[in-house]
Structures are given as structure tokens and as C-alpha cells.
Amino acid sequence: MSTKRISIVVVILVLAALLVSIPAQAANAATCAQYHYVQPGETLFRISRWYGTTVAELQRINGLGSSTRIYAGTSLCVKADVVSDPVGGKTYVVQYGDTLSRIARAFGVNMDVLARVNNILNVNRIYAGQVLSIPDFTIQ
Fold first, then answer.
1. Within a 10 A sphere around the Cβ of 60, how many other Cβ atoms?
2. Tens-place pLDDT, residues 80-130
3. How far is Cα 118 from Cα 7, in angstroms, rounded to an integer?
4. Cα dihedral value 95, 100, 101, 102, nearest 10
5. Which end of the chain has fewer CB atoms within 10 angstroms, the N or the C?
């Protein structure tokens, strides 16, 4: 393979890596409270320890699935935005990969109550970008 072909392959791979990271960043742009710009040699584990979170949480809020691969220069959301709800609870913006049961567990709320408060008929159907009201109470 010639040097020119190798260079083209490298450029295509770099562009593909950038295209994979852009949707996750764009999806979280309006819901991220704090970003971290990945430096050469950093890992999700190291970044999670630095910000007092977990690798799983970083994967979730950045839409990485089970991948731990990150690239220098990438902007990662390290803290999701949770804002106050005028009704008295909080609101949470659903991120790619969230489930209602995990959200309920994270906020200490019964999943059925969370579904009722948000008029969710099918607890398996929530979508990224959906705003959920998190009640201050739970009913057992």
C-alpha cells in the first residue's frame, strides 16, 4: 500500500471517530452542567475519579453505550443538568440509554409513581430528551 493510500485511510478513520462523538455531544449540549476536554492519555476511569462519578455514569450521559474508548480533544459531559421543577420536585432530561427504573432508583422514587406523575403508560418507552418530573415523595 502506498503512503498516499495509508494517509487517506488514516483521514477516513479520524473523520469516522469524530462523527461518532458528535451526536453524543449534540444530544447532551442542552442538558450538560459541566464538560471535560479529554487530554492525551486520559481514560474514562481516571476522569470518573477526578469528578467523583463512575465510568458507567459517564458512558450513560455521553451516549457511549458500553464503550470505554475516548479520544483526546473530545468534549465529555461529566455532570448532567438537573433543574428545579416549579411544582416542587425536580426535572430530569432523559439521556440516551436511560431506563425508567434506573432513573427512579437514582432519585429514590418508586418507578410506578414516576410513570404516573409523567403520564407514561409503557414504562419501557422513554426517549432521550424527554423531560421527566421527579416528585419529592414516593408512594409505595
1. 20
2. 765 544 445 678 888 888 899 999 888 888 999 888 888 888 999 888 878
3. 52
4. 10
5. C
| 63 and 104 together in one domain | no
Residues 74 and 17 in one domain: yes
- Domain limit, last residue, from 80, 97, 115: 80
Same domain, 75 and 8: yes
Q: Which of 86, 109, 82, 105 lies closest to 94 in space, CA to CA?
A: 82
In this structure, the answer to whether residues 87 and 75 fall within a common structural domain is no
What CATH number does the domain containing 41 carry? 3.10.350.10
Query: How many CB atoms neighbour CB 117 within 10 A?
Result: 17
The span from the CA of 39 to the CA of 49, in Å, is 15
Cell numbers representing residue 82 in the block: 438537573
Name the burial class of residue 104, with classes exposed (0-12), middle (13-18) and buried (19+) by CB atoms within 10 angstroms of its CB.
Answer: buried
Residue keyed to cell 476522569: 47
From the CB of residue 119, how many other CB atoms can be counted at a distance below 10 Å?
7
Look up the pTM and report it.
0.42
Q: Give the three-class secondary structure for 61.
A: helix
Q: How many domains in the chain?
A: 2
